[in-house]
Each structure stands twice: as C-alpha cells, then as structure tokens.
Amino acid sequence: MGAGAPPPDVKAQGKKILVCVSGGIAAFKVVVVVRSFAEMGADVRVVMTRSAQHFVGAQTFAALSGNPVSTEMFGSGADVPHVELARGADLTIVAPATANAVAKMALGIADDLFSAVLLTVRSPVLLAPAMHTEMWEHPATRGNIATLEKHGVTLVGPSEGALSSGDSGAGRMSEPDEIVRAGLRALGRAEDLAGVRVLVTAGGTQEPIDPVRFVGNRSSGRMGFAIAREAAARRAKVTVVAGATSAEPPSGVELVQVATADEMRAAVLERAPECDVIVKAAAVADFKPEEAVERKLKKASGPPEITLVPTPDILAELGSRPGLRKARSILIGFAAETEPDPGRLGLLAEEKRRSKGADVIVANDVGSSDSGFGAATNRAVIAGPDGVTDVGLVTKMALASALIERISQLLKERRKL
Asked: Which of 68, 104, 195, 284 has its CA 20 to 30 A from that of 362?
C-alpha cells in the first residue's frame, strides 16, 4: 500500500472485491486501490466502462489484480458475465463514480456490463464520486445521491481540491488510502457494533405558541437518520427518538416519536441508563413560549406578546449528571453553527465539548445552502479527546460513517479500561 496507508486491521484475505471503474480522470487513483487489496490477499475483480479505458488500460488492472478485466456485456460461453461477477462479492467499490454512473445506478439502468453488475450485486457498495463542482452540486445529482444513500450505498467523499482543467472545488475523488480504509471498515462492519445499544435523537422540536403555530427550525432529521442507519448496518441495536422530520426514517430501528423538547428529554432520560452510546443529533429548539394558549391567536387582535423561556438542555444534563446514563457510555453532541471557517468551527466544537461534558461534538455549518438543515451535505468538524478533525463538505451519510468509526474506536478504548 502507499505511504501513510493504514494497516489491514480487517482481514481482506480471500474476500471477493469488485472494483467498478467509470470514465473519469481520477481512474488513475484506482490503480492504488486495486493493488492495495490484491496485496492483502483479496480476490479483486475489475469491471471497466469503455470510457474508463481512455484513462487507464485494462492490462494495468489485470496485472495488479491477477485477474482478467471485464469490459463487455456478453461473453462467448454459457455464463452470464454480470451475474457471475456479482455473485459472491463481499464488497463492491465504484471509483471513480462519475455523474453519469451515479445517475444510472440511481435509476436502475443496465445498458452495459458496468451498470448491469451494479444492479445485480448484493454486497455492500462504496461509492467514490468524482466530477466537476457544478455537476456535483446540480439538483439532479443531489437527488440521485440521496436515492443511492436511501438504498444503503455508502459514500466515500468527495473532497474539495484541484479538479481537471485547472478548476478547484467540491467533487474531487477521495484519495486511495481513504477508499481502502472505507473498504476495510465495510468488510468488518458485520460484527463491528454487535450488541451495542445506541440511542440517536433526530429532527427538530416544535414548541407550541397556540394550537397551530410553534417555535422550531428547518431540521429534516436526515443527519440523525443517517447515523442511525450506519449504526444499524454495523449491527448495533438502535433506538431513534425523533421530533419533526421530513426525511425517511431508517428501517430496522426502534422509532420513538416526540414533538417538544420536554417530550424528547423524557424519552431520552428513560432510555439513557441502558445505552452504550447516545448521539444527540436533534436540533432541539433553544427557547419555547412561556405559555401556549389554548385557542388560535387571531390576526385581527394584532401581534401577540410572546415571552420565551429556555428549553431543557438535554446534552448538558446527560454530561453533567453521570448517574443518568450507563457507566463508560459515550456521549455525542451536535452544534449547529453559522461559521464556515473550519478553524473557528473547530474552536466552537471544542468549547462546547468541554462545557457540555460530552465525549465528542460534531459542529456543522448551517449558514450555507449546501450545508446543514435540509441539505444532503454537511460542512463539519469532529472534536474529540484526541483533537479536532476537519471532515470538510461531505454527504450526511459520509459524515455518519466517519462519526460511527470514531465511536467504534472509543468503544474499543473504553473496553480496555
């Protein structure tokens, strides 16, 4: 593996790994991914589109993987190539994933070997997008990415940086080592959080003014649901306490619906003593009306005078009163900020981590159109005991994966104590 690559902490020996390469200039990076898994003893099979062969020759991948490279939909024998390639795969990596490849996957198009394999495969799928910023930010691509995430596809990147033609911005494919690390995590995911009880809060709370109006925010619940989905995929037993949401909740988890901050507090404190991990991803309203009136306020009566009072700070309560939760449990909080600068965002995250008594704080910028409430992506930093990590602008599923990986490491460390 390349310099700085992680040790193979998950056995790849004998695993069948499909690497599907589409036509982007970042295809040259995939050479390192194929070589890395082959050196670990994996059975690596490469599928290439015709466009991909303009950037890297099939013979290069064949030499590194030790297997013939598949490029054509139809074979000369009785076997069906896309079925045989997909059957028995332990992991599928799509890199680079161009905007066209993403669209075909989302729509279920199978008009070549590459897309037919991806429609047939039943293994975990890692997607490493690579495209110009304008294509990555286009509403069609954002919708396609959301569809794939809903189907359980895991995104690796993209990152921000130099693109082809001298451009720079979001859409750069993740580096090979990062893709390999994500692949190793996916291969070891089955037992990663088995037996761990995880509580996640999601969505926003609605604090009533009258029977039809409330104090709230634009939280969709997508971030909390992404965390719950990732934890459940790693076999954790997950409970989600959700306020108001517009995103689709994950399957395979216990869902508890609440409306107000007080209701969320009660639901969380009831379950906290049994949980190994608590992730407070909900956007709880900071204030509520001191009194909610029983009848709708009439416009003709003029603007009402509304006195606001603080809502309960659930995160601070859990952090300052250890008896409320399980011994050695891990407490994670989120901080919605309107500060796009990563350095400043990191300082705010660390300040909140210490003041709230949390193990980890994820601070995300909610002041940009491409980050925060309602968006498919988050610009975030993760502050933990080992320092602050700038995650950059990533999809919420990618941020969830990074956070769950951090949680997994913290759990391993606590178990050694």
From this structure: 195
Q: Mark residue 35 as left, alpha or beta (left: phi above 0; alpha: psi -120 to 50; beta: remaining).
A: alpha
Helix segments in 272-332, DSSP class H = 314-320
What is the rounded (10 degree) CA torsion for 197, 415, 355, 201?
-10
CATH code, 155: 3.40.50.1950
The CATH number of the domain where 323 resides is what? Answer: 3.40.50.10300
pLDDT tens for 160-209 read 766 666 666 678 888 888 888 888 877 876 567 888 999 999 999 999 99
Chain segment 131-145, per-residue pLDDT in tens:
888 888 888 998 898
Q: Are residues 224 and 93 in the same domain?
A: no
Question: How big is the CA angle at 7 (ends 5 and 9), to the nearest 5 degrees?
Answer: 135
Choosing from 100, 144, 217, 364, the catalytic residue is: 217
Provide the residue range defining the domain that includes 20. 16-187
Phi, psi of 334, deg, nearest 5: -115, 145
> Does residue 67 sit in the same domain as residue 125?
yes
Beta bridge partners of 392: 380
Active site residue 217: yes
Q: pTM score, two decimals?
A: 0.68
